[in-house]
Design goal:
The complex is a heterodimer of chains A (76) and B (577). Chain A is mainly beta and 76 residues long. Chain A is 5% helix and 58% strand. Chain A has a single domain (2-75), classed as OB fold (Dihydrolipoamide Acetyltransferase, E2P) (Beta Barrel), CATH 2.40.50. Chain A has one helix and five strands; from the N terminus they run E-E-E-H-E-E. The radius of gyration of chain A is 12 Å and the shape is globular. Chain B contains 17 helices and 21 strands. In chain B, the strands form five sheets. Chain B has a six-stranded mixed sheet, sandwiched between helices. In chain B, strands 15-21-20-19-18-17 form a six-stranded antiparallel sheet, with helices on both faces. At the A-B interface, strand 2, strand 3, helix 1 and strand 5 of A face helix 8 and strand 19 of B.
Chain lengths: 76, 577
């Protein structure tokens, strides 16, 4: 499936030791955690590079995560 | 002539199999018949019940599960219960992955929106479970209804959504051709642990094998694993896992900026082909270790659980969702996994080992907490439950038949007359074991104080002055919770609390067997120490990133449970696997 949206970081647990910015795909319908299939599920520098870009992502929705197999950057 | 009793029931949905495999489904039917025949040679009278057949289900006064409603958990539970109640077999096998017979969706007692973050720290809204199939209780999404498992159940899966007929044919042939081996074949262990959980893993291994010799800590170790290690028939894995991911992951202690060094791969599905010994039995604590995901989600790679079974493993015991355990002691997932392997090594069938592990979990001291409930629901056995990998050391008793012995009533599969007497005695022993487990289940469930509905409470960090005073002299449970949260560096946790009902309220809420009532009465009449009653359970948990992951996505859930007993508070720390 294809999803169009903006890659964002969402602030998580602000002010805490665990504060971090999860990489998400924000579409007009919903916001999903993003994970690149085959990448280390605990962190992926390649996804970090997409933050701020609008993309058409190709992949599958599974639980609360969009599993990304490919993408096309619309605007960087 | 009375019909032979049914020892094993295999339930599946042939219309769904037909949809998945088309004309190749005949190969599955042939493999199934081979399993039924092989079981007969072992003295098991096995029947295959097509849940999708109206004619077959009519025999059990049940309603067929049409292919269009294959994903309907309630319909499947009802149909399987009807078959089970009519046949009361020693073994119940679910044939197929979750697109053939679905998991039962149970509400996760740890799922709660953290008011401070807007998300649940444990993201699993539902726990995908096979536990309800092991219980007589009717369909429900409340795990507390399923705390007295009595059925020996296993699921022999195919690959979700994929039409790989050779895979299903293969796992059926492995079950049909299984061999029992001496326990020494299960003495050598291949164990994997993250470096962070080494202490906990060592304790589990000592409990199962009285040795930690097979332990591999990741990092520094990692794949490729030598054949001599990976071909060990007993395997214990205590690593991280992720959803729809064909690998388990280690974890380095301390900071490490490179993710691939902090969380290196410990084992992948692709490591297994041709490197796993026939008869391997695996217990895996990893999050999502037994998730039967569609390989299309992972570029065609099947999950590790599927991969082991495809390589002729006899059983895989694991979790469908995020699982928990402590870093140093043994609790939660550790208990189930270590008890499972201990029972297999003692000569239990993998199905009985699963049921016994569940019952031992119920015996753990203290009330059943929300984390216990999730753990109890999420672990499942992927196997033909009747497979018994280890030969028992006890010599069989001599059995002789007198003329009045009527073997036909109990004989199956054309067994010879002499053999039928031995098989009949084996059946009696098996049924006796089932009765003992049933009694144990009733008693254990009665003594397990079931937690009430959890309530999310506000977690507010007190002002520094107030916090310091409370730390010096804690006056309320909340003071203690804050103290422990600070010790674990939990700064924005969610707090769940649940009152523990009294034994009287519990007895009133659920019908109980006489044995269960007796157990409750004995407990209530015990010495003062044993009547110290749990009143409230608190869960304090937070989704965190490990030290290396300062600005990245991660999913480590840490926290603790605090159990109040009239003035005493017990703390149990946990971390997601």
């Amino acid at each position: 499936m294809k999803l169009r949206g903006r890659v964002i970081r969402r602030q998580y647990a602000p002010g805490s030791k665990s504060e971090h910015e999860a990489v998400m795909l924000q579409t007009t319908e919903a916001t999903y955690r993003l994970r690149r299939v085959g990448a280390n599920p605990f962190g992926d520098p390649q996804l970090d590079k997409l933050v701020g870009a609008e993309i058409i992502g190709e992949g599958n929705l599974h639980r609360d995560t969009f599993l990304l197999t490919g993408w096309q950057t619309i605007t960087g | 002539m009375p019909a032979a009793p049914i020892d094993k029931v295999i339930v599946t949905n042939k219309a769904v199999l037909k949809r998945k495999y088309g004309s190749q489904v005949s190969r599955i039917n042939t493999a199934l018949q081979e399993l039924v025949d092989a079981d007969a040679q072992r003295g098991l009278n096995t029947i295959v019940v097509d849940l999708g057949s109206a004619a077959a289900m009519k025999k059990y006064k049940g309603t067929a599960v049409k292919a269009t409603q294959a994903s309907d958990a309630a319909a499947n539970k009802r149909a399987i219960d009807k078959v089970f109640k009519a046949t009361r077999p020693a073994y119940l096998m679910l044939l197929g992955a979750t697109d053939v017979i679905p998991h039962q969706p149970l509400k996760n007692p740890l799922y709660a929106i953290n008011p401070q973050t807007g998300e649940s720290d444990d993201p699993d809204q539902l726990v995908d479970s096979d536990l309800p199939y092991a219980c007589d209780a009717a369909y429900s999404t409340d795990v507390r209804k399923f705390l007295n498992p009595t059925r020996v159940v296993g699921r022999l899966p195919d690959v979700t959504s994929a039409g790989d007929v050779a895979y299903l044919e293969g796992v059926l042939k492995t079950a049909a051709g299984y061999q029992q081996r001496p326990v020494k074949e299960y003495d050598a262990c291949f164990a994997l642990s993250t470096a962070t959980w080494m202490g906990s893993t060592k304790k589990s291994l000592k409990s199962i094998f009285q040795s930690t010799a097979g332990l591999n800590v990741v990092p520094p170790k990692g794949p490729p694993w030598p054949d001599a290690a990976l071909k060990s028939r007993a395997q214990f894995i205590n690593c991280h896992g992720n959803t729809a991911t064909p690998s388990f992951t280690g974890e380095k202690v301390g900071p490490e900026p490179d993710f691939d060094k902090k969380y290196p791969t410990a084992l992948s599905s692709s490591d297994l082909p041709r490197h796993v010994a026939n008869g391997t039995v695996v217990a895996a604590e990893c999050c999502y270790g037994a998730e039967l995901y569609d390989p299309q989600l992972a570029m065609g790679e099947i999950g590790i659980c599927n991969a082991y079974l495809g390589e002729q493993a006899y059983g895989f015991f694991g979790s469908s969702t995020i699982a928990y355990g402590p870093t140093d002691g043994t609790d939660y997932a550790d208990i189930l996994c270590l008890e499972f392997l201990k029972e297999v090594r003692k000569g239990a069938s993998v199905g009985r080992a699963c049921l016994t592990a569940r019952l031992k979990y119920l015996d753990k001291p203290g009330p059943f907490t929300p984390t216990d409930l999730k753990t109890f629901a999420q672990f499942a056995l992927l196997a033909d439950p009747s497979v018994t990998p280890v030969q028992t050391a006890v010599s069989p008793h001599a059995v002789a038949a007198l003329p009045k012995w009527k073997p036909a009533a109990l004989t199956v599969g054309g067994a010879q007359a002499g053999q039928s007497a031995v098989l009949a005695m084996e059946r009696l022993a098996r049924n006796s074991r089932r009765q003992s487990l049933l009694n144990w289940s009733n008693t254990a469930a009665a003594l397990t104080a079931i937690s009430a509905e959890t309530v999310v409470e506000a977690w507010q960090a007190p002002k520094a002055k107030v916090a310091a005073a409370a730390a010096k002299s804690p006056k309320s449970p909340l003071d203690l919770l804050r103290q422990w949260a600070a010790q674990m560096n939990l700064t924005h946790p969610v707090l769940l609390s649940a009152k523990v009902p009294t034994a009287k309220a519990q007895a009133a809420a659920a019908p109980m067997s006489p044995a269960a009532k007796l157990a409750l009465a004995s407990a209530a009449a015990g010495p003062a120490e044993s009547t110290l009653r749990p009143t409230t359970v608190h869960v304090v948990m937070e989704r965190q990133l490990a030290e290396a992951a300062d600005q990245k996505v991660g999913l480590i859930v840490r926290g603790f449970e605090a159990i109040e007993y009239d003035g005493l508070v017990e703390v149990r720390q946990f971390q997601s696997r």
